[in-house]
């Protein structure tokens, strides 16, 4: 037993000495930059597992008012055979995807297997893109 212990220990110490420490200088690249960025890509997102299981959209429309403000209408559909209460808001973004306006969360009650239209209007004509977000009301 002791005969195997000394060479094994010697090999482990030699391996540790030869590898050394890896150093890094300068800035680091972001890790998983595209992994959880649905709000930057999609126009409709569900913020929690309960909403993901129970809610879907039958369509999202957008139109531009004569004064340049963006109006968004989303049809929320309850997929379950029970009454649901959800909260919905809209984040308006400029052409580059930066937030310019956010509506407060609205409570929406959906009866069994029903569909409801929710509308949002941007306060500024700088809004060109949007993301509608839905979460379960607690």
Structural class: alpha+beta
Order of helices and strands: HHEHEEEEEEE
- Range of helix content: 10-25%
Oligomer: single chain
User: Residue ranges: pLDDT <50 for 5 or more in a row?
Assistant: none
Rounded to an integer in angstroms, the radius of gyration calculated over CA atoms is 26 Å
The end-to-end distance, rounded to whole angstroms, is 63 Å
Number of helices: 3
Could you say what the CATH topology is called?
Immunoglobulin-like
- Summed up, the domain count is 1
Net shape: elongated
Task: Return the average pLDDT rounded to an integer.
Answer: 86
CATH class: Mainly Beta
Which architecture name does CATH use? Sandwich
**Major sheet:** 5 strands, mixed
Beta strand %: 35-45%
Briefly characterize the structure:
The chain has 138 residues and is of the alpha+beta class. The chain has one domain (38-136): Immunoglobulin-like (Sandwich), CATH 2.60.40.
